[in-house]
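Batch job 17 of 40 flagged for manual review because the log was empty.
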Amino acid sequence: MSSLIPRLILSIGFPLLMALVVGAFGLGFFESARGLRDILMLAGVTLITVAVATFLALRHFVTQPLRAITAQLEKKSKVGPFLARASAKESRSRELAELVTAYNATLATITSMQVAEIETSFQMKQMEGELLLKTELENRNQQIEQANAKLEQRVREMTLLLDVAHQLGSTLELSEILKAVTQLVGISMGVDQFTAMLVEPDGTLKIAGSFGLDVERCASFQLKLGEGASGIAAQTREPVYITDLQSDPRYIRGPDDPDGPASLLSVPMICRDQFVGILNFTRLRKDAFGDSDIVLLQLMASQAALAVLNAQLFTRMRELNPIDPITGCLGPRHVAERLNVELLRAQRLALPLSLIRIEVDPYSARAAEEKGPAADDEILRRIAELIRKKVRATDVVARSGSEEFLLVLPDCGQREAQTIAEMFRRKVEQIGEAERDTTDNQMPRVTISAGVATYPEDATGLERILEAADTALRKAKAAGRNRTALFQMDGVDS
């Protein structure tokens, strides 16, 4: 402020001084002037002189410094509006220098704020990028987890199918196949109820195996083609899925079906375009089967259909073949015919004829459980081989049931037949014991029960002598098994 006042005084005083000089000069001129015209001319010259002097003073002290500062800012602003700075050297007063300094400080503050804004914007964009990357990684991880879950599910399904194929391929007995299917389905698929229905020659569907149901109550239940979910599946050869048994009119209630919420899936068993039967899967909740379940159970039904067809074909071949393929003995279909021939011969020659009915006692062993039906076949094969080696050429050894044998001994009395039956009982008992001493592949300890009946002491007709042998066998089993029993009349008419 102290430097500005002298400059203002100088700027105003110089024109005034000039005016005074001109006035003094004019005064002399006025004194010598002779008229109004000369006075006006003097005043005009004075005003012009004052204006020119003021203009020159303002230009020198104010206008030129401001233009110089402006020119600096315009030149430096080309680098960047926030990087331009004015120089105080061009200022011809301390006030202008302070103004330039304040201006530069304001620009510096604005520049700092702009830099902070740029840094904040960059950080925000960086955070947005990291957030997007994190979200993408989470989505990828979720996709990987879902893919792993699906893969694990497929592995479990393939393992189940392999187990089913192994179990179904280990036997040709239809009862064993149905038993294996029901156990695998109940344990592995998590169903609450299951039925396997086979088609009869007349086209009806009957329950041949079940899980989670009362077998006796379901034994008489049957459906016709087009009747109920199973009948519709049999007629259309396509799966029928009922999501709610309580509200679907296609459902026909069975004797042991659930009362509460449940869903049912009926899958036809088809192999080589041949319809075999229906597999029914029930879960005790609504809409309990997904698309993957339906596909898996269809594959299982195809495997079961192939196994059932093979078992049925094997049964027909065995019925036609007089020799049982497992034991090498006479098949059950030909037992009655051969026994009738031997009975007629005994009657004609007045010779005794004895029957020995043999049944394998129930057994439980780890080796047999691990091998499954194959272990049962091996046991029957060994028992049959032992018997065939000890009988005479004229004797008949037949397999009369799944675990039963019938020996027909021509010209053999009751006591002699009892001795032979007891010998077989002891030999069979030694099978597992001998093997335990010679190999690690142990057979279970097996025993048999035997019943003996003789013609003509115990019975005379074909049916009666068979009944007598059965009665003696039941007597041996009732006494504790692993023993031999003779038929006793007990007042029964022979």
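Reviewer: the log was empty due to a logging misconfiguration, but the result itself is present. The first strand starts at residue 193 and ends at 199. Unflagging and moving on to job 18.
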